[in-house]
Design goal:
heterodimer; A: mainly alpha; B: mainly alpha; about 75% helix; disordered N terminus
């Protein structure tokens, strides 16, 4: 760049430090409660509040011929109940429909902050939040499996594939252990985190790249910044797809793990 | 929207695919990890333990996938 940028934000080359969000309560900065009231936690509480209020309001006065609000709420729940819970888990799946629908709405809502103006980052771009969601799914399918089959039988059907000679178990059981009880929660959390984090970086690159190009002294590069901003807009729509898709994938995989835990034999 | 559609099961195959992929990765990671640990413990030169472990792991995982889905 030929000259010093004039209208850039003070922390222009963005770095890792930009992900350390400051506490909104100044006196708590630096203390162990410093991370309790930040932009990120605010977004999570906001998402929870929006979902609770929306579903309460749209069901407060249910009609046989649904209003638009009620129709949206019903089709959200109906979609998760029928296409995820019932189709994946089977007739027992209706029991899990409330949790799965809540999970879907929560993840979709928190993901959506990635492209809502002035928020522009999803809480799920912080690994801590996907980890909690992954752990909940993990505990859920293990508890469901143990309650259905009993502790010994559940781990036996999961760790020992029937119909193979016993010496092979030494070779195969570590694989089952890793792939079922270690990789599942890790991949659940990492998939969501990586998608939201990568999406955030992508929008950041094109938007700030456009700003940096606009600040250039070269007229040609300034003109090219239009491409960068256009890409940012295109990527925002792409991000919208990722937001819904990742919420769906997380719900779907949770359901399929529960189904695996409930299944009689593999 | 979803209420009116007939019941369908679009992804019983995708489910099995994810499980198979997890098993294959798990094979490489589990036995590769064991091999790597042996490397570090016994000072085996040139990551031979890791190499053998990963090959053993993918073979065992393939066997497992065939047994489970075949």
């Amino acid at each position: 760049m030929g000259q010093q940028p004039t209208f850039l934000a003070e922390g222009f080359p963005p770095g890792v430090k930009d992900f350390d969000f400051q506490s909104w309560i100044p006196s708590l900065r630096g203390s162990e409660w410093g991370l309790a009231f930040t932009k990120i936690t605010f977004m999570v509480w906001l998402a929870v509040a929006v979902i609770i209020v929306y579903f309460l309001v749209s069901y407060r006065n249910p009609k046989v011929v649904p209003t638009k609000k009620q129709w949206l709420a019903e089709s959200l729940y109906g979609f998760v109940r029928n296409s995820v819970a019932k189709d994946v888990i089977g007739h027992e799946g209706v029991r899990f429909a409330p949790y799965l629908a809540t999970l879907f709405c929560f993840v979709a809502m928190t993901n959506a902050f990635a492209i809502i103006p002035f928020f522009q980052i999803s809480p799920n771009a912080h690994i801590a939040f996907p980890v909690v969601l992954g752990v909940i799914s993990y505990v859920l399918f293990i508890v469901v499996g143990i309650r259905k089959h009993g502790f010994v039988k559940y781990f036996k059907t999961n760790l020992f594939v029937p119909g193979i000679p016993w010496p092979i178990y030494f070779l195969v059981t570590p694989i089952e252990l890793i792939s079922t009880f270690i990789m599942r929660p890790v991949t659940l959390a990492v998939r969501l985190f990586a998608n939201m984090f990568a999406g955030h970086l992508m929008l950041l690159v094109f938007t700030l790249g456009g700003v940096a190009m606009l600040n250039s002294s070269n007229i040609f590069i300034q003109g090219l910044s239009v491409t960068s901003f256009l890409m940012a807009i295109v990527m925002t729509f792409f991000e919208l797809m990722v937001i819904v898709l990742q919420a769906y994938v997380l719900t779907m995989l949770t359901a399929s793990y529960v189904q695996g835990a409930l299944a009689d034999e593999h | 929207m979803a209420d009116k559609q007939p019941p369908q099961r679009p992804d019983s195959g995708a489910n099995a695919g994810w499980t198979a992929l997890g098993t294959l990765l798990g094979g490489v990671i589990a036995w590769g990890g064991i091999g790597y640990a042996l490397d570090r413990w016994l000072d085996i030169p040139r990551h031979l333990g890791l190499l053998v472990g990963m090959i053993v792991g993918i073979c065992a995982a393939l066997y497992l996938v065939v047994k489970r889905f075949g």
